Amino acid sequence: MPGHEELIQTLAQLDPATLEEVVSAAYRQRSQRTEAIDQERPNPEATAEQFAQWLAQRHLASDMALERVVYLPTGAPADEIRLLEVNRLLNPPDLDTIEPLDFTPDIDPAFKVFVADVTTDQWERIQRTPESILPSGWELKDYKTFTRA
User: pTM (2 decimals)?
Assistant: First the structure.
């Protein structure tokens, strides 16, 4: 696959109609992949980690701004999943505040899901000193990172 700069240079050389056609085709193809993922259901017997991975792949497929999804199992109740989503387009109101939101889906297996978006800079800071900005009770120990396949 060509690098970003090579891809940008190639696209910049296209006439406007062809560029529109190429971009539209890429969005259609991506949308079809997202729809296929949306139709998949997790295994009803999935462990918290398996469910977190399934959920992370769904989020990564539907949001291209996400660089990675980080699963934080340590310290979480058995029926709770905690995810950090490293979002390169996020512009947080306060660099020292990470606010997890309830993203619990209404499907089996039934896990309570909390997701907190963080910037790339915040993720780097969390890796250096997790206690500095992680939400209370959230721990970096034994974390798992999920990226696009």
Answer: 0.74
